[in-house]
Amino acid sequence: MAKFKSTTLLSTLVGAALLSQPVMADPDLQKEIDALKKQNQTIMERMNATMDMMESKQPASHGHGSGKGKTTVGGYGELHYSNQANSIAGQPAKKEIDLHRFILFLGHEFSKDIRFWSEMEVEHATADPNGGEVAMEQAYLEFDLSDKLQSRAGILLVPVGFINETHEPPVFYGVERNNVEKYIIPTTWREGGVSINGKAGDFKYDLVVHSGLQISSGDNYAVRKGRKGVREAPANAPAVTARVKWNVTPGLELGAALQNQSDMGQGMDASVGAGTLTEAHAVWQVNKFTLKALYASWNITGSGAASVGADKQTGWYIEPSYKLTPKMGVFARYSTWDNRAGDNADSAYTQSDIGVNYWPHEDVVVKMDFQTQTAPAGKSAYNGINLGIGYMF
Asked: Residue 187 falls within a domain, yes or no?
C-alpha cells in the first residue's frame, strides 16, 4: 500500500505551492508561511504513520497482552413472562416477568492449538439474597492434542444430557428448560476439573475428572442444592464423568453418560455416601420431524438419603417437535421427575407442555407454551401460560 494517498498528495501539493513562492519582505506573512509548512509536515507524518499501521500484518491488541491471536465476544439471554394458577386453594398464583439470564461470552485463540473460552452470567437481573446472582458459567483453556483429541482445564460444563452444554434459547423448545434436566441432572451444572474430549469414527467421547456435588440433610439430599459453582468448592471427593455419543445414521444420535462420586457429602455429612448418575438419551430427526427422549437416575448410598427416599432420584421425558416452516415450529413434551423416588410415598411431579417457537432470525426466538402439572399431595402445581424471547450471538 503506497503511503502517499489522496490526502497526503493534497498536503504535498499545498506545501510545494507555498515553497515555490518568493520570500516576502513582510515578516508577518513569512510567519504564516512557516506555520503552514510546519502543519503540512505534521499531516504528512501522521498519514504515513496511519498507512504503516494499516499495512502491518499484526492484529490489533485487545486490552493487555501481546496482541497476538484472535479474541471473540458473544452472548445470549432470555426474558420470560409467566401467568400460572396454583393448584392449592388460597395459595398465590405465579404472575411474573423475569430477565432470567444475561450471559456474556469471551474467547481468545492464542494459537491454532490453544484457546480460552468463558461465559459470565447474570441471573434474574440482579445479584441479591433473593435469588439473583453473578457467576462464571464456563472458564477453561482448551488444547488440541491431535486432529481428533482435545484436553480442557478450568470451569467445565459437565457432559451429560442435552441442555447442560447447549442451552442457548434459540436451540431448544419451550420457554423454560425442561424439569428433568433441571432437578435431576441438574442444569446448568459446572465444575472445576480437567477433561479429555475425542472423536473416533461415528463416536464422540468425553472423560472428565472434576469437583463434585455436596448434598445434605438440610435440603433433603436434593442434587440441585448440591451445586457449588466452583466457589471455594469442597474437593474432598472428586467425581468422574464419562460420556459417549454415537451417530448411528444421519439423523439418529444415541448418547449415554455415567458419573461416580465416592462421597456426596464431601466429608461434612456422614449420613450420605457415594453417588452414581446414569443418563441415556436419543434424538431422531426425519425431515421436519424431531423426536427427543432422555432418562436420568441417581443412586446414592447412606442412611440419611435412604431415610427420606432420596437414595434414588429419577426422571425422564419425551419431546416430539415439527417445523411448520423454516421460521416456525411446534412441540409437545411429557416429563416426570422425583427427587425422593426411593420410598413408597407419592413424591413424583409430572408436567405436560405444548407450544410454539418462532425464529424471525436464526439467532432470535419468540416462544409461547402452555403447561399442566401434577404434584404430590400438599405440594403446589402450576398450570398456565409462559411467554419468552431469547437470542444468541
From this structure: yes
